Amino acid sequence: MSGEPARSQAPAAAARHRLLVSSSVAKRYRTAATYGGAVCLLGTAVTYFDSRQFDLVFLLLGVVLVLLAVGLHFGIRRFYVQLQAGTLLIHGLLREEQVPVSAIRQVRTQTLRVVFSAPSRKGLMLRSLRPFEQSPALVLRLDMDVAEVAKLGKLAGRGTVLDHDLILLVADAQGLDSSLQPQIRRRPPAPAAHRR
User: Fold this and answer.
1) Which pLDDT score is estimated for 189?
2) Exposed site from 6, 30, 72, 93, fewest CB < 10 Å?
3) CA distance 99 to 164
4) 61 has pLDDT over 50
5) In this predicted structure, what is the pLDDT of residue 186?
């Protein structure tokens, strides 16, 4: 009989896959807010030490901008995707959306350049997506209303919705793909329209 105490095996937490587009936008806003707040507070300090007076509005603006930068700094980690109990959770700064795995018809991983290489999609890649042109993207074909897919795209980042396709630019697209594939219900392709 072993003298070692029995160890309970707690289930491993589902991996969080950082949303690259939303995180990148938040970082740009954080940088702008940081510099803007620093300029306002520095200007207020210089004015006060020079004339013993300061503009309250300018001071408050600086404080608000610094607080916004701090909030974005800690909030960036909230932009992620997580597969949990048959549901794909898409987290944003202030809200989250759930995508049932049963609503995912197809999943594939391609570089963003390939995703937008089809003739019907050329010219649709937004400027905010161009830094990730060579990055692998997870493309989900969803059995959902187009309006619902567009709602999900607001969390994933501008330009990440093409009809029923949701493009997820995440830090480990292949890893998320591998986690999703076994759970996708295989369905036959839609029948082709009869030619007359």
Assistant:
1) 53
2) 6
3) 13
4) yes
5) 59
8 Å CB contact between 69 and 28:
no
Other beta carbons within 10 Å of 116: 21
Question: Is residue 176 within 8 Å of 168, Cβ to Cβ?
Answer: yes
What is the radius of gyration, based on Cα positions, of the chain? 23
Residue 85 in tokens: 């109990």
C-alpha 68/C-alpha 39 separation (Å) is 14
Using pLDDT thresholds of 50, 70 and 90, give the confidence band for residue 136: very high
Strands 165-168 and 161-162 turn out to be antiparallel
Displacement of CA 33 from its chain's centroid (Å)? 20
What residue spans of the chain are helical by DSSP H? 20-51, 56-75, 112-115, 146-156, 173-180
pTM (predicted TM-score):
0.73
